[in-house]
Amino acid sequence: MTRGTGGRFTTFIAIDWSGAVGARQKGIAVAECRTGNTAPALVRPGHMWSRAEVLDLIRAAGPDTLIGLDLGPSLPFVDRGAFFPGWDESPADARGLWALVDRICAGDPHFAASSFVDHAQAARHFRRHGGRMGDLFEPGRGRLRETERAQQRMGLSPYSNLNLVGAAQVGKSSLTGMRLLHRLDGHVPIWPFDPVPESGPVVIELYTTLAAIAAGRTRSRSKMRTHADLAAALTALGSQPGGGDGPISDHASDAILTAAWMRLVADREDFWHPEALTDEIARTEGWTFGVV
Question: Where are the domains of the chain?
Answer without folding.
Answer: 1-292
